[in-house]
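Progress narrative, work stream C.
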Amino acid sequence: MSAETDAPIVTIRALGDHVGQEVTLQGWCYAKTGKGKLVFLQLRDGTGICQDVVFRGNVSDEDFEVAKAITQESSLIVRGVVKAEPRAPGVPGGYEVDVRGVETTGISDPYPIQPKEHGVEFLMQHRHLWLRSNRQWAAMRVRAVIVRAIRDWLDDHGYLNVDTPIITPAAAEGTTTLFEIDYHGEPA
């Protein structure tokens, strides 16, 4: 990334607090489109998704070529000015970043899950990637809110959270190495 600055590293969720300021975002390329002198990157971090606009006139030629070469799910660092834009897509929407510099920290292989319809078996084989889709991501966010509300209610009413060890005689999804222990005279 050319012309390094001291732009603070912020999360996508906090973009609204930095309108008009230069910031640094770190995340993964969720999607990319572009034509001619423009590249639109959708950047995802753990807090949301935002649109980052790379205009050839605002970045070095090297940074523009980097932006054009980015593949989906590549990790990157983007530096730019936050703008309020009501039409900007994202979660939360309404903000975009006018990019001044872009750097890849890791290029991803071609993404196996495309917009076409895939079968459940294929999606389960690529579950770690499927979870990054809009629908799966939204479901996880809803689930997190529900679990947090239940835990808060239980905590507010004096319940104690106890996580007990689980002893099972079978490997879960074939991902563990089993070893035998004596459990009250029985193998477990």
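Work stream C, second folded protein:
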Amino acid sequence: MVKLRKYYRFSTLFITAFSVFLLVSCGGNKYYNSKIEGKQIAITEQAGEVAAIDNFIKPYREHIDKELDSVLAYAPETLDKSKGEWQTTIGNLMADMTVEMVNPIFVSRENKNIDICLLNHGGIRAVLPKGDVTIRTAYEIMPFDNSVVIVELKGTEIREMANYILKEKKPHPLNGLKIVADKKTLAVKSLTVNEKPLEDSKTYYVVTSDYLSSGGDNMNFFKKSEKLYDMNYKLRHLIIDYFKKVDTIPVISSKRIILE
């Protein structure tokens, strides 16, 4: 150990002295870079894996895979966001589970109930396949770190929401709000919130994501909210908790938007 320390000190002194020598000896000359050359080297599988690194990572990867593939529930059929014009089974599930999981928290914190849930169709990134439902399923459906928030909106802003949904013509996940519209003009005929007629001056509590609450996907009506409640709850975690709660995933085909 003593010899190594002496060798280390000697090496350090030698390198330092040599560096000073180079700086002094080159002090009188100026060098300029006139040309830079390079070439692209593709990274391919031909290079192979470094066994030591792979062996180090392997147990962690296996542990993560085991966790992600833990079975939480069962889906009797595939839920696909592409199958449905105004609502889809996976969209209905997303909206309904959000209310089911978040409303008890909102009641306990604020002594208030959620009236409506609105999420975005584009936020659902994968199908929920028939068969075993796992933690990996939740990550595939919701890969984003969006959080759950609740915003206060007046009835007039709920009308804006309904007009937005009809104009978009996308099956955005919706719960609590029932829209009846003209099948030709898409003009709103009636709006009900939990089976009661919408009141323009009434305050409604809408659960959504932090992304949408700031006007994401052009949902600018959310920005008119005067108060926002942060639930400190990731949407993905909500999905996982719901999967753990139920044994079989329900297939929800109820209509939230009706054209007549």
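The first helix runs from residue 2 to 25. No further action is required on this item.
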